[in-house]
Amino acid sequence: MPTIIAVQNLTKTYASGHTALKNINLDIRRGEIFALLGPNGAGKTTLIGVICGLVRASAGTVLADGHDIAVDYRTARAKIGLVPQELATDAFETVWATVSFSRGLFGKAPNPALLETLLRQLSLWDKRDAKIITLSGGMKRRVMIAKALSHEPQILFLDEPTAGVDVELRRDMWAMVRGLRDRGVTIILTTHYIEEAEEMADRIGVIRKGELILVEDKTVLMAKLGKKQLTLQLKTPLAQIPTELATEPLDLSADGNALTYTFDAQSDDTGIAALLRRLDAHGIDFKQLRSSESSLEDIFVGLVHAQS
């Protein structure tokens, strides 16, 4: 897929001397859902701020659909919709007026049919005449999304979009995001809900201390770094793993009733057959087997800790 956002050698150092971004290079593909993950303070929001023209970079360039965000700011910014972490809107305006005004800011002609569709998709149509101050936190979050989409951007940034949103609404919002992607909108998502990235993203980027430490297709990342585990429920508890089995990647549960074997599912030889033979030779019987695989959260935690 062609690139819609091109970030080259991007650095941001604040007046305090703190470097929030360090030589970031990133290409985001047109029409994908890209999840940017990282611990608090990693630089996610700063990176979004620079791309959206809200934060001035110290060095480097950013192109949005071929337009330099510094040189051709007006055109570049019109390509982008942003849903920030903070709920910032006029508390005493109505939902309809707020969303209509946002569209007008980008010089777009009124389009009541489009705004109605947006508000219906976000379960806000019944609240169109309600003042923002009367809405719940989840509804205010939806208004922010409607504002960001009101000018029909080709790129949508969602910075913690489901913070404070209940599980049911979160699922509805995921469905809406997929629908936008299907219509060609590129989605860049930051989230603390790792399962959100695991379910939705096409590619994953991990940022830590201002450095982009990994960018990978989600399925490739899961295959390369994901591990599988085989848990054996033992017939007779063990006090400890026999010395002869100490070289095996085995963990014994605290109560001695289960052994967990960790292996690489992509390997031609997982070692399971040989392990079961060795257990049998040592008189270790099991009554149940259960397999599981590491989640994106496991991989993310492992990556961040490995870079510490």
Characterization of the model:
With 308 residues, the protein is α/β, with parallel strands linked by helices. It has two domains: 3-223, P-loop containing nucleotide triphosphate hydrolases (Rossmann fold, 3-Layer(aba) Sandwich); 227-306, 2-Layer Sandwich (Alpha-Beta Plaits), CATH 3.30.70. The chain has ten helices and 14 strands. The protein has helices at 44-51, 73-78, 95-105, 112-121, 137-149, 167-182, 194-200, 218-225, 272-281, 296-306, and strands at residues 3-13, 19-29, 33-37, 59-64, 67-68, 80-83, 155-159, 186-190, 203-208, 211-217, 228-234, 250-252, 258-263, 286-293. A six-stranded mixed sheet has the order 6-7-8-3-9-10, with helices on both faces. Strand 4 (59-64) and strand 5 (67-68) form a beta hairpin. Helix 3 packs parallel to helix 5 (137-149). The chain is elongated and about 80 Å long. 32% of the residues are buried.
What overall form do the CA principal axes indicate?
A: elongated
Superfamily at the CATH H level of the largest domain? P-loop containing nucleotide triphosphate hydrolases
Average pLDDT reading: 86
Instruction: Report the strand count.
Output: 14
User: Which sheet architecture does the biggest sheet show?
Assistant: 6 strands, mixed
Instruction: Record the strand order, biggest sheet.
Output: 6-7-8-3-9-10
Give the proportion of residues in helices: 25-40%
Radius of gyration over C-alpha positions, nearest whole angstrom: 24 Å
Binned strand content: 25-35%
CATH class of the largest domain: Alpha Beta
Q: Could you name the ranges where pLDDT drops below 50 across 5 or more consecutive residues?
A: none
Main structural class: alpha/beta
